[in-house]
Every structure is written in C-alpha cells, then in structure tokens.
Amino acid sequence: MNRTTTKTKMVPLPSQSIIPERDTAKTPILEVHRLGINFGGLVAVDDFNIAVGRTEICGLIGPNGAGKTTIFNLLTKVYKPTSGAILLDGKDTSNMNTVQINQAGIARTFQNIRLFPSLSVEDNVKIGLHNQVKYSMISGVLRLPVFFSSERRARERAMELLDIFDMTHLASHRAGSLPYGAQRRLEFIRALATNPKLLLLDEPAAGMNPSETEELMSNIEKIRDQFQIAIMLIEHDMRLVMGICEGIAVLNYGKIIAKGTPEEIQSNPLVIEAYLGKKNGRLSC
Amino acid sequence: MKSLKSRYNIDNWLTYGLVIFAYIVMRILIANGKVSFALQGQLVPITVYIVMAVSLNLTVGVLGELSLGHAGFMSVGAFSGAISATLLELSVRTTLPAWMRLALAMIIGGIVAGFFGFLIGIPVLRLEGDYLAIVTLAFGEIIKNVINVIYIGYDANGIRISTESANALNLGENGKIILSGPMGAIGITKISTFTAGFILILITLFIVLNLINSRAGRAIKAVRDNKIAAESVGISTWKYRMMAFVTSAALAGAAGALYALNYSTVVARKFDFNTSILVLVFVVLGRMGNIRGSIIAATVLTVLPELLRTFNEVRMLVYAVILILVMLVRNNTTLQHLYQRIVTKLRYDRPPAEEGDEA
Known about the structure:
The complex is a heterodimer of chains A (285) and B (359).
Chain A: H1 2-9, E1 30-39, E2 42-52, E3 57-61, H2 68-75, E4 83-88, E5 91-92, H3 98-104, E6 106-108, H4 121-128, H5 137-141, H6 145-164, H7 180-193, E7 198-202, H8 210-227, E8 230-234, H9 238-244, E9 247-252, E10 255-260, H10 262-266, H11 269-276
Parallel strand pairs in A: 3-8, 3-9, 6-7, 7-8
Antiparallel strand pairs in A: 1-2, 1-4, 4-5, 9-10
Helix pairs in contact in A: 4-7, 6-7
Chain B: H1 4-31, H2 37-62, H3 70-91, H4 98-124, H5 129-147, E1 151-155, E2 158-162, E3 176-180, H6 194-212, H7 215-225, H8 227-232, H9 237-260, H10 273-285, H11 291-307, H12 315-330, H13 333-347
Antiparallel strand pairs in B: 1-2, 1-3
C-alpha cells in the first residue's frame, strides 16, 4: 500500500534522465530514494538518489572515501540504511537481509576480492549456483538420484559460465592460487552464477593492465547483452567508465555532486573540482 | 579422469578402505588370540573416539569453528542412550535382541544430542571464533553438572525423576535406579561390541563425507572461507553453521551411547573438558578438515597409553612428550612445505606459473 502511494506520487527524479531510452518502457530495476547512513556522527552517505534501467551499465565514481563502496554495502544490506528506500524491480527491500537481497536479484563483487580460497574454481562457481541448482541435505547425504542429476547440471552450468571468461581449463585449480586477474574474473563469474537482475561490480578493473581492462570492458558489455541485466560499477579507471557506462553518478563526501552521460560528466566543473581541487584556491560554489 | 571430483572420490574410498581393512585385520588377530586383553578392552573406546574425532572435524575443520564442548554432546548421548537401553530392557516384555537395543540406544542418543546441539547452537552460533569456543566450553561443563543432579528410577508404576536424591524417587518394590546423580548411570548391561563400533564409524563416514561433497557441504565450506561472500551469493550462514553443528553433535551423541553401553556404570565426570580437549587433539594432530587423519590420530593416541605401559608411572609423561614432538614435527615449516607440495600436486592441478601468494 505504502509502495503504491510512493509510486503514484513519485515526482520525476533527476536520475531518470540518465536511464537509456530503450529501458524507459519498463520500471527501472533499481530505484533508490534519499538513501542515507550515519556511522556515529559521520554521515557516510546522504540523500543518495538513483534509478538504474533494466539493461543499463551505470557507473559510480568519485574520489577515495566518497562512499561508493558504502552504497554497494547499503544496496546489499551489509549495512542497514539509516534513511531512505531501495526499490528492487519495484519492490521494497527494507525488510530484506543480504541473503534475501541476493535471492531477489542483486549480486556483487568486492573491492578486496572475497573468493572461497581453499576451494576449487569449479566449487566457487557452484557455490554461486547454490540457489539455482537445489537439492536437500538429505538427498545429498543419501546420494539419491536427484543428487547426481543436480550435480551434473551444476557442473555443466559452472563450465558454461567459466567459458565466458575462458577459464574452463582452470576449473580444478584452487581459487586462492589463481593470479590476481583470474581471481577478479572468477568473482565476477560467481556473482553472475546467482542469476542476478542487477550486478554490482566494485572496481572490476583494479590491478589490471590496459589490455586486460580492454578485454574486461568488452566482457561487461557482452554479459549485459547476453544476460539482459543491469550492471552498476565502481571504477577509478576513467577509460573504462567513460567507455562503457551509459549513465554516471559522481559522489563526493557521501553526496551526489553530478549525474549524467559520460560527456556531461567530463565537462562538469563540480566533478573536475572534486577530482583536481579548486582553481587558484577560489571556491566555485 | 583428472577432475578434482574423481580425486575426492578416490580419497573417500581410501578412507573407507582403511577402516574396513583395519577391522578385518583386528578380527583375524582376535580370532588367532594375538590381541592382548587390555587392547581388546580398548577396541570399543577406539571406535568411539574415531567417531568423536570425525564428527568434531566437521565443526572444527569443515565449518571452521572451534568447539570445546564436544564431550558435552557425547555425555548427552551417553546418558540418554544408557537410560533408554536400560528402560528398553526393563519395560519391553518381549525382550529385544541386544544389537537392536544398542542400535535404538545409539539412535536415541544421536537424536537427543542433536536436539541439544540445536538448542545450544541458537545462542552459540551467534558468536564467532574465541567467543564461540568459550561458550561451547561452558555448555560442556553445564551439561556435566546438570546430569550430576538428576535421579531417574523405574518401578512397576513407571519412570520416576527427581533432582534431590535417590531416596526421593520413592521407588516401589523391584524398583531400579537407572541414573543416580553423581554416581552416574548404573546397572547398565554391557551390549556394545567392536562390530557395532565399526558400523557406526562407517555410518559416520558415510554421513560426513557425503555431506562434505554435496551442495550443503560446499555451502558450509563457503561459510568457513568467507562469511560475507557466502551471504552475498545467497547462502544463509546461520542455516549451514547450524547444520554442521547439529550433525556433529548428533554423531557425538551416538558415539556417547556406544561408549556408555560398553561399561556397567558411567559417570558424567568422564565427559569433562579433558575429553573435549583429547578429541580436539585428535582432530588437530590428524590435520583439520582431514577425515582420514582424524581416524588415524584417534586410533594411535587411544592405543598409545596402553603401549606405553612399560614406562609405568612416567607413562603419561612419555605420552605428553610424544604429543609435543608430533606437534613440533607437524609445525616444522620445511616439512610443512614439503607436505603442502605433495598435497597440492596430488589434489590440484599445478597453479599457473605467475602466481605466488600462497606461501
């Protein structure tokens, strides 16, 4: 009831302008209204509004400590927001926890990679498939037929997913022993395995060289086209952000200072100020 | 077949094979009268400690949480098993065969211990790491002290329970005290056998190994490796930690029942902190997460005090020195690297050349 009133009353958000035209027919996959969180007296995120289209690639940029990862943690309920509302696919998520958020359709990767290092690459992906290929503990212990058929399905699906990043030959390796770039890709695949509608990538290109970044960019677009999902990413590599993001939000000190297309962002004086500082020490605002 | 899965399978069959082989060898030796009386008396305790070690390994090695109260679950299983076996003997008119009473006692012991595992798991699994260890330790002690004040008797009118004294039970004629507070469960008919222990080990291995290598087991290991990442892919950490904890407790309960029915009396003092630590030593020496290691460590360390009888009064000193030596050898970095290299070679394909973070 509450939801419908907010929806009907909803004034056009400034963020709606950055949804790609092809997505405007459907409700945005993610709508965030006045999201905020305080840690004690520190206001980490304040009045954060955004709407993400169903197949949009959207960038979240800003200087270090601007609150970008905090926003990902809020969206996935690692932190409980102090204020504001998050609507996923038009549904209120305020009563969901991290696990339910994932089941509802948000998957993420982490800035500091969080794989299951002692398990094999294949098992890491299979753990991502946990809620996609299901059977009970009892049928697992008793090795019922459903165990074998499900395990076969999980293995096939895991291999399909690993194939996207050409990682099938690494399937039996220990995840913790992989090189850095491969670990990032594996985390990406694991997130994708949970069958998300919205994928949050936290610095996917960190530690990658230009050619790897180039490959990653085409992969991100390929995945968006193939799976028809929305992708929101935090990234410091401006070539990647400006290259593939359709909408960009710039964050500084927990507040959005600019939103728009890559062209608009590049010429925005507030953004330049946030990144490079004030010209001749003069305040521009 | 070079896949990881087939290697796991070979690994599992090796474990089953080891247990079956050891059982057959022991049977042959006993038949030929080559096993000393003292060692024969140790056979059931060995099987009990193997089950204890394997089940604790599920909590410590696979789930990655240190539990110091495993003997508490053994205790719950031992007393519920002993009481139910005695009651079955006294109350059921058509006498059940001994093996059936034993099996029922182990099942009841397992279920009751599993239930206690669930109850204790509710507060305990809100904690992590050292805090969890301390609280499980406390629960082990609490269970011991609670059993010390319970008196259960049985007479023509049925079961009587008291928390004051054996006299307060007011048993009628032919009444029998089953559990007598600090005196423990008394008048138990010894029905445990080596074969029953062997079967319990096989069942335990079947449950634990199949659990580890299934969807639920992957989820448990995922929770161990990284809780935040596990939740981010939609795995309920609470559910899978509870699953591992309860399974572990239930198996310990079944082992406890087998243990209790091997003696005519059993006291709660037996299942104290020292027993929990003893089982933990088996798990640590056998390497955490390594089921076969737990089996070998439990066997060797249970037999060792008997083998050291020649040292008389310094026997436990020698035992301690051996433990320390094994620990030192286990923690020797050179040997560890060698071991890691061998294991990595056996279990995983060679990692790509450019990496180097797994030092």
